[in-house]
Automatic annotation (TrEMBL):
Residues 3-58 form the HTH deoR-type domain. It comes from the Bacteria. Keywords: DNA-binding, Repressor, Transcription, Transcription regulation. PANTHER family: GLYCEROL-3-PHOSPHATE REGULON REPRESSOR, HTH-TYPE TRANSCRIPTIONAL REGULATOR SRLR-RELATED. The keyword Ribosomal protein does not apply. Gene3D superfamilies: 3.40.50.1360, Winged helix-like DNA-binding domain superfamily/Winged helix DNA-binding domain. Residues 1-62 form the HTH gntR-type domain. This is DeoR/GlpR family transcriptional regulator of sugar metabolism.
Amino acid sequence: MLTTQRKKAILDALARDGQVLAGELSVEFGVSEDTVRRDLRELAAEGLLQRVHGGALPVSPALAPFEARRDIETAAKQRIARQAAMMIAPGQTAIIDGGTTSALLVKSLPADLRATIVTHSPSVATALAEHPCVEVILIGGRLYKHSIVAVGAAAMEGISRIHADWYFMGVTGVHPQAGLSTGDFEEAAIKRALAARAAETVVLASSSKLNAASRFVIGEISLAQTIVVEKDADREVIKQIKSAGVTVVRA
């Protein structure tokens, strides 16, 4: 089998099964594991998959710059955002992550909602500046430009002073086995810290993020109590997420 044929077969298997194992591929193709690993390295360098120990996972397409992501899956993100906004009750404190879906979430908050919103996203805070009844607490730090959020030691210090009812988390990858992931090491740490300060963590996941993975792990899939997905999200993936004890809400 030619290299191009192997690579196509690998990508086809990823699309079908959600993961591939180097050992199984070497047997299927009749080549060494070193040859398969070379194929995986080259595909990863092209941005076509995410290598993990023993094999590979589908790569998340949600790693484009913030401006580019605004126009991706907009209708689906709006439905997910509206569903999430309905979870916040009057008097509650909610942490809202950065990202394009989070930006839509704050726009969906009722004009008469009295609540406290904590965020490390300047864009989320700015979007709420004119809200008449929402108190906004902005956590500062070094700006991670991809998601337009604060990261680093100063952000961690601010996060440690919070107790919240909800944390609405943005991710770039949601995979039943590989868990929740994102494209930046520091941002992954910030997300773990925010989840630890909330009674319930809700992940906002449009279809491009399901069954995909990025380089840095936030935590196991069970770090979230709830994941909000599109109404037509893949049934098999949803079944696996539910089997981990996570509630799935379709929007």
